[in-house]
């Protein structure tokens, strides 16, 4: 007996300025994963697109580990596991490539074994594998998500803005691992900085919910992680300033970086070119892409 499933998973941007480890948005950039299960054969993994030649193609592959986690959970065993990843999400850039891989593996394996696990169970498993819920939540559910940990269980709220929102992402040519980006963060922050971020997160969610995007010029400000990570992304403030000067409502570090993301409802190309030029002035080669909010999240396409 053999089973084939194909899944599409969106990339994501997390934090959105002050919403550290809590706020995430599903973006219209995707990975597609094909899973083939058989009673005969061995493990085989192929990668096309981003990460080809860099992503492990053995049992260390995170997609395989996600697939195996589902098989173990539901009590299934297959000798032959074939995975093929068609990836458009840049690796180690702050666009949720690892979350997409984990979610894709979980959902493909769940579908292949009879859909016995709920979305919430998939969410919980993805959070355990990823280590935090802020990217896996929008990857699964789509839209904008707020995630919290209640004891050991992740909880999420999903919503969509009342108006269209575009995101212009400047992608520098260098990678930045989440581990490295977390190492520069302080163990504690002041009460003043905590209050600053709480107020900005409240304004951020309100502005996004109501579509009052002009508030983003203040709501995207942060004092918890971006000031410390700025040293890892040359030209970060200059790129932010260039985006705003060309009409963006505001800009932020995408996830742990190094991608920088500007929010707008128009002038995407003008903003993107200005962001790339600002990076260039700091001797950083970059490109840009224009995205919108994915509303579906991960889904089986075949």
Structure description:
- The chain is α+β, with helices and mostly antiparallel strands and 302 residues long.
- It has two domains: 2-160 and 294-300, Ribosomal Protein S5, domain 2 (2-Layer Sandwich), CATH 3.30.230; 166-292, GHMP kinase, C-terminal domain (Alpha-Beta Plaits).
- 35% of the residues lie in helices and 27% in strands.
- It is built from ten helices and eleven strands.
- It has helices spanning 62-74, 97-112, 119-130, 136-141, 178-183, 191-210, 216-219, 226-229, 236-245, 268-281; strands at residues 2-14, 23-38, 43-49, 80-87, 144-150, 153-159, 166-172, 250-253, 260-264, 286-292, 299-300.
- Strands 1, 2, 3, 4, 5, 6 and 11 form a seven-stranded mixed β-sheet that branches. A four-stranded antiparallel β-sheet has the order 8-9-7-10.
- A hairpin with a 2-residue loop joins strand 5 and strand 6.
- Helix 1 runs parallel beside helix 2, helix 2 (97-112) packs across helix 3 (119-130) and helix 9 (236-245) packs antiparallel against helix 10.
- It is globular and about 60 Å long.
- The two termini are 18 Å apart.
- It is found in: Cytoplasm.
- This is Homoserine kinase.
- Its main location: cytoplasm.
Fold-level CATH name of the largest domain: Ribosomal Protein S5, domain 2
Mind telling me which CATH architecture of the largest domain this is?
2-Layer Sandwich
Overall SS class: alpha+beta
Number of strands: 11
Write down the overall mean pLDDT: 95
Radius of gyration: 19 Å
Number of helices: 10
Largest sheet data: 7 strands, mixed
CATH class of the largest domain: Alpha Beta
What pattern of helices and strands is seen along the backbone? Answer: EEEHEHHHEEEHHHHHEEHEE
Report the β-strand fraction as a percent range. Answer: 25-35%
Percent helix range = 25-40%
Assembly type of the chains comes to single chain
* Whole-number count of domains: 2
Give the low-confidence spans. Answer: none
Q: What is the terminal separation in angstroms? A: 18 Å
